[in-house]
Specification:
This protein is α+β, with helices and mostly antiparallel strands. Among the domains are: 76 residues; 115 residues, D-amino Acid Aminotransferase, Chain A, domain 1 (2-Layer Sandwich), CATH 3.30.470. Helices cover 29% and strands 19% of the residues. A five-stranded antiparallel beta sheet has the order 7-6-5-8-9. Strands 1-4-2-3 form a four-stranded antiparallel beta sheet, with helices on one face.
């Protein structure tokens, strides 16, 4: 039987800690190889300059216990509701370790892991293959997340599953607004379009001026709730040198998505490449 939904949060984990790290040479080697594969150069792990290098540095050295709490898809809801209010958070219909034999919640819905990224399945109608989704979710539960890319914080999140209502319109995923926050200040907004089909993204400054390279896409309309998103992201970003805070706009109101500390695992190139250095300078300033 499904277990009743309920947030889990360890308040002791929210104290600001000293930054630790790992001297694992294999981790450094893996990070160097994957970075070289994606960026065609080796990262400077001791003195990072690029944003993507700072992500690798964080993976190796930053053991702030707040990071797993804020990345846990269950615990983060309590963290955010305490600071912004419960209306910012998508409700949890169920949480547990194994999905029931049949879905017992209103459709459409989404199944997610609490401990990983991109581990999700959408159920839009009774014709969707629930047994296949149960098998996929079982695979999520069978393995720790983030080991290959040395994403430490995901190993600290309890493995688990959750079910939420689907928040898109007409079966389509909503536009995803990802706000880059340095030392409590939003620097830019990354806009993700058509994440299920023809996924692409672009970057805008706070005044909604695109500064990533031109594409065939017209600039999407500035969300009406952007000012509220910026204020909320800066509230959640207090006390962190960097965090990305994601939102959707649902019926004209902002909705929290997630907090991310390793965007793209630091492996997604920016276009133009100068953006990587620009955001790296902001991260360096935030650490002073």
């Amino acid at each position: 039987m499904p277990r009743a939904a309920g947030p889990e949060l360890n308040p002791a984990a929210l104290a600001s800690p000293p930054v630790g790290g790992t001297s694992d040479r294999l981790a450094r080697m893996r990070i160097a190889i994957t970075y070289l594969w994606r960026h065609h150069c080796l990262p400077d792990l001791q003195n990072p300059r690029r944003f993507t290098e700072f992500v690798q540095h964080r993976k190796l050295f930053d053991r702030d216990p707040r990071l797993p709490v804020c990345s846990d898809k269950i615990a983060a809801k309590t963290y955010v509701a305490d600071r912004l209010g419960s209306d910012w958070v998508t409700p949890t219909l169920w949480q547990g370790d194994a999905l029931p034999a049949n879905p017992v919640w209103p459709l459409p819905l989404v199944v997610k892991s609490r401990h990983g990224c991109t581990q999700r399945a959408f159920v839009r109608s009774s014709h969707d293959d629930w047994d296949a989704i149960r098998r996929r979710s079982g695979a999520w539960m069978a393995q720790p997340y983030g080991v290959w890319l040395d994403e430490w914080l995901y190993r600290e999140i309890p493995r688990g599953l959750l079910v939420e209502p689907f928040i898109g319109a007409d079966g389509q995923l909503p536009v995803d607004y990802k706000l880059y926050v340095f030392a409590g200040q939003v620097a830019c907004i990354q806009v993700h379009l058509q994440r299920e089909t023809r996924h692409r993204w672009m970057l805008f400054d706070r005044q909604w001026r695109r500064f990533s390279s031109p594409t065939r896409d017209a600039d999407p309309a500035r969300p009406g709730s952007l000012d509220r998103m910026i204020e909320a992201a800066e509230t959640l970003g207090q006390g962190f040198d960097f965090v990305r805070v994601d939102f959707y706009e649902i019926d004209g109101a902002p909705r929290f998505g997630e907090m991310t500390f390793y965007p793209g695992s630091g492996l997604d190139p920016f276009d133009p490449q100068e953006i990587d250095l620009m955001l790296g300078r902001l991260w360096a300033e935030a650490r002073r």
